[in-house]
Write a structure and sequence with these properties.
The complex is a heterodimer of chains A (115) and B (115). Chain A contains no helices and 11 strands. In chain A, strands 2, 4, 5, 9, 10 and 11 form a 6-stranded mixed β-sheet that branches. Chain A has a 5-stranded antiparallel β-sheet with strand order 1-3-8-7-6, with no helix packed on it. In chain A, a hairpin with a 4-residue loop joins strand 7 and strand 8. In chain B, the strands form 2 sheets. In chain B, strands 2, 4, 5, 6, 9, 10 and 11 form a 7-stranded mixed β-sheet that branches. In chain B, strands 1-3-8-7 form a 4-stranded antiparallel β-sheet, with no helix packed on it. The chains are: A mainly beta (115), B mainly beta (115). Chains A and B meet through strand 4, strand 5, strand 9 and strand 10 of A and strand 5, strand 9 and strand 10 of B.
């Protein structure tokens, strides 16, 4: 079946640098995408989402880019801080209607921020 | 605080025990979910309740039994589990509206160890 995957399992950056975490998806019918952050001992925390009718969305220090042509999603974190260290994973929604029942999650990328 | 509270945070049980996981959401959402998170695997959807009715059950073994008495509370009853059921069990909630997408909000999970 189709699934969400990540190009890099680990990413190490220096504090203050920008981080880019990538995600590839294979289902062209997916129309909604979400990025989550999971810190050790905690559940996934919603960061930002984007619908397929957009190609860019910005939040506080984060930007999500969607390239439907190559089925690629990325999360950019500006001025990365030690508190950003966590596992980041994307999810795609292939479902119809208004549900999230067919939300498929990737395995995650471990981001480590070095002081 | 995530708005989704799970208890207990940690649980150790033998294969012959019966236990229950509890989840409560304070976000006013109308859908609740149970996910299983195992090491090195993506999140796996176990059960979905929308408007208090079970919508999807992804062929989870019958030793896992969900219960959703109202839109704010969700339980996962466990009995005669196997060691391979050891994992982090995550509860989530979302607002389901026809034609709209919304992210899931997760609790911090129950770390289950089956001995």
């Amino acid at each position: 079946g189709e699934s969400v995957g990540l190009h890099l399992p680990t990413l190490s950056v220096q504090e203050g640098d920008n981080s880019i975490i990538n995600c590839a998806y294979s289902n062209s019918a997916s129309d909604y995408f979400i990025w989550y952050k999971q810190e050790s001992g905690k559940g996934p925390q919603f960061i930002i989402d984007i619908r397929s009718n957009m190609d860019k969305r910005q939040g506080q220090r984060v930007t999500v880019l969607l390239n439907k042509t190559v089925k690629h999603l990325s999360l950019q974190i500006a001025a990365t801080q030690p508190g950003d260290s966590a596992v980041y994973f994307c999810a795609e929604n292939m479902g119809g209607g208004g549900s999230n029942y067919k939300l498929t999650f990737g395995k995650g990328t471990l981001l480590t921020v070095n002081p | 605080e995530t708005g989704v509270t799970q208890t207990p945070r940690h649980l150790v049980m033998g294969m012959t025990n019966k236990k229950s996981l509890k989840c409560e959401q304070h976000l006013g959402h109308n859908a609740m979910y149970w996910y299983k998170q195992s090491a090195k695997k993506p999140l796996e959807l176990m059960f979905v309740y929308s408007l208090e009715e079970r919508v999807e059950n992804n062929s989870v073994p019958s030793r896992f039994s969900p219960e959703c008495p109202n839109s704010s509370h969700l339980f996962l009853h466990l009995h005669t589990l196997q060691p391979e059921d050891s994992a982090l069990y995550l509860c989530a909630s979302s607002q389901v509206t026809a034609g709209l997408r919304s992210p899931l909000h997760f609790g911090n999970g129950t770390r289950l160890t089956v001995t």
